[in-house]
From TrEMBL, chain B:
It comes from the Bacteria. Its EC number is 6.2.-.-. The gene is hypF. This is Carbamoyltransferase HypF. Residues 15-99 form the Acylphosphatase-like domain. It is an enzyme of class 6 (ligase). Belongs to the carbamoyltransferase HypF family. It comes from Rhodoplanes tepidamans. SUPFAM superfamilies: Acylphosphatase/BLUF domain-like, YrdC/RibB.
Amino acid sequence: LTHGAGGRAMAQLIADIFAPALANPYLAQGNDQAAMPLPAGAAGGRLVMTTDGYVVSPLFFPGGDIGSLAVHGTINDIAMSGAVPLWLSASFIIEEGFPLADLQRIAASMGAAARDAGVPVVTGDTKVVERGKADGVFVATAGVGLVPAGLELSGDRARPGDAVLLSGSIGDHGVAIMSSRENLEFETAIVSDSAALHGLVAAMVAAAGPSLRLMRDPTRGGLAATLNEVAHQSGVGIVIEEEAIPVKPEVAAACELLGLEPLNVANEGKLVAVVAAEVADTLLAAMRAHPLGRDAACVGTVVDDPHRFVQMTTAFGGGRIVDWLAGEQLPRIC
Amino acid sequence: MLSAPPKEPGAPVSRERLRLRGVVQGVGMRPFVFGLAERFGLAGSVRNDAEGVLIEAEGSAIEAFVAALRENAPPLARIDAVERTVLVPTGERGFAIVASVGGRAATLVPADAATCTACLDELFDPASRFHLYPFVNCTHCGPRYTITRRVPYDRPNTAMAGFAMCPACAAAYENPRDRRFHAEPVACPVCGPQLSHSAGEIAAAIRAGRIVALKGIGGFHLMCDATDEAVVAELRRRKRRDAKPFAVMVANAASLALFAAPGAAHLALAETPARPIVLMPLRGDGERLAPSVAPSLAQVGLVLPYAPVHHLLFHALLGCPDGRAWREAPHPVALVATSANPGGEPLVVDDADARRRLAGIADLIVGHGRPIVVRADDSVMTVIDGAPAFVRRARGVVPDPVDLGRDGPCVLALGAHLKATVCVTRGREAFVSQHVGDLDTAETVTFYRETIAHLTAILDVTPEGVACDLHPDYRSTRLAEELGPPVVRVQHHAAHVAAVAAEHGVPGPVLGVALDGHGIGETDGQPGGNWGGELIEVDGAGWRRLGHLAPLALPGGDRAAREPWRMAVAALAAIGRAGEAACRFPAVTIAGALAARIDGAPVTTSLGRLFDAAAGLLGVRTHQAHEGQAAMELEALCGAPRTLAHGFVLADGVLDFAPLLAALADCDDARAGAALFHGTLIAGLGAWIGEAAQARDHRTVALGGGCLMNRVLAEGLAADLRGRGLVPLLARKLPPNDGGLSLGQAVMARAAMASASAAAGGSQ
Ligand SMILES: [Fe+3]
Ligand SMILES: [Mg+2]
Ligand SMILES: [Zn+2]
Ligand SMILES: [Zn+2]
């Protein structure tokens, strides 16, 4: 792939790689914009829109690659509002010299992820930059979705007494990325949990409806960052139980080796829901009935706390503050 | 005793204003001055004001009066200066104590002090109205800081506000000739607080092998028979404290030597009014303490009774002997006296809280009606290089200030993340708070916030700047960002050096070492790197890294600090023997995997982690139950330090102990290895520091950082440096670890603020 190629070369690249991989009627319109019909149920509902950039290294990791991740991540950002995701856009920044075969693989994986999710990539863009101006390939995706009438999820709606539910084990994505980055050979391969959660969300909305206060996907910064965001936005404290948080044994082992705290490690196919206590059991049952919520658990409670602390109680009964880290996990023991 | 004043017949009458500076308020200074003035036939007055105590005196014996002031000052007072101004005599008659004036006057709250001998005499005197009263106190003793809600330090502003004085106590309080003149906590059985259980009941529970929670001065203690292994082990189980040593209280100074081998310095320290826990060598052939009191350590922390209730408890345990002989005689009775703080939380201070939080730990909870307003753990001290040194600074010492030698802006410094303290400067003084603890629990963070609010309130200041560490994830850093005033970030190890220099009053530029666990480094203004064995020159707000230890891998971040086997693997990798990891640590399943990826790990120049590496290599332990456990055990194993020839390499300021690590890897005798490690470490550090001191023309070296809690290292290094003609400065007024960091941060931030405002002024 060379930088500075003319319009023709770029058109060729799109026609050869992206158009077939992402094929759908809207993309096939071939215009600088895609035109879509208003979805059914638009009246009374609300449109949501999100955008996200993906700069993962390595580009290919166990359980996915940057292409599928860019689809799942943006679908999940839409779905966390309770919305039905409708359409995606994709933009690629490609470093000169990036192997075409790899680009093909990414486009194919992106197309497959979009098809599986039933959410088409309706428009896109491609740029090739000089060597060193990008690292392989960067992807930016945007998405539009529709929130059904009557549903209003928001990060400031957690109230003391609410239950905190988690859809499954934590740390899988971050540890999969790190182990492939560090060439770690574990006895059991750890696979990213990258997945589109809108199906699970639909089942949850059906089960709990307006009793759902909010949902978040604990991506960068992990569960710790997400819970701290919620505590701050809602002006409450959250107490979680260490025992209740699912962590796969192989993820726990890798975290031990790497010196990581699973609570601070990224996920790409998990969600946290805060829900009124009285429907927590119903919601949990609905989550467990969905393949992406099989290991769902109630992990904590929202409490009244002017300091907005997220605390974790351990098996020994002691509590400690769960931190929202500035960046990587730095040592604090002097 | 005071001798009769010298007669000065015909001496001319003069008048002077005398300004007393130092610890002169709330310590019985005014009645003392009053009594002295009467004795020397002087007229005039004495009062407390913003700067200390102000005396006007007129008569013919002022010279002798001043000499007696200095010589016979009350036990808790410390007169740093007497400034004298000559006035014109006015012919005044009589001497008066004048009420305090407002404003910042009398804002210096004294530290808590152990029950004095005169009060003890009354406590055990059947004829005294204070007989067996657990709250007896006077101007020379009793609670102070821990009962003070706000300033000025007057009874309505203390925990005694709810206790109206009876006529007898009121009369004593008002009488300048009484030992209780203006003793704010004065109380008696008629008017004062009561204990929930009698000393006899508490003693019976202890004798029956029970665990008692006893409310004291700065919080609750958990107490039990320290000679009974079953109950001590049970206390460990209930407190979920595996190995951290427990402090032990014995009946009196004479009893110390039954259990330990105190030197004269230990004895003197144990008997100071501050009554710290004093770490002293265990005595193998003496009265037996239960092995669980201080597992695997050669030292034990002993403390003498400091509240009347402690004395009453020993009196009851000894069968309530008459007379005073028992108070001087040695007794083979010892009680565990450990802070009542479940699982890393702050000390319990409140009766209701005690019933809630200590129910699963204590069999009997003994409270009393005098609230503890300010929580303060026992101070822990030791003797290093012949002089007292702090391990933990709290009750009995706080809020004594450090004199910074000059004025500066008011700064609030927030310390580190573990062993947090805060420091507030006011004028030329720096006030470091009591030990707060590790900022890992909501309860400790709340205590930390309360400490900041209380300290700034009793000093009556509004900080102009806030100092914190470079670490983005210390809770202290987060709080600094929330507080409002401009934030000054201070590098961890520069602050360690600055703290030691400041308490010794040494101005910059000063050469120092930070021999420490971990702190974020800084290169070209950018924070980063895991530092902890640093040679630094500090000058005001500026500093320069002159050298460091050779980097070792730091596999697993904080886990490496908890698991010495990891640092041992790092050491093996450093000497090209990472392949031995798996077979050296067969019980650690991931040892081989860790060794295989160690090249990608971050690195550290920490000396604390080098200690862990040595402990791991020598098989002392693979995992630690509490911070510093492996290093403390390594120290305990060390007899006379021995130096390995060519055990270190020194090049361009980088000190590399690889040859020593290789020797330790081949050493199968932990005692020999511990001696070799300490000795070679001292020799290497001495050479390293000596080279820099010569190159940069320094005579003085400040020694800071948590590793200097190690007595063998601190004393060995100090001796080595003296041998090179250098003057080593050890931490004396504050602990050398992160407990003293806030002082260094405050001093450097003040310098930064002063130079910033000078620059701003100059540019106008
Ligand atoms: Fe430190
Ligand atoms: Mg996003
Ligand atoms: Zn007294
Ligand atoms: Zn009374």
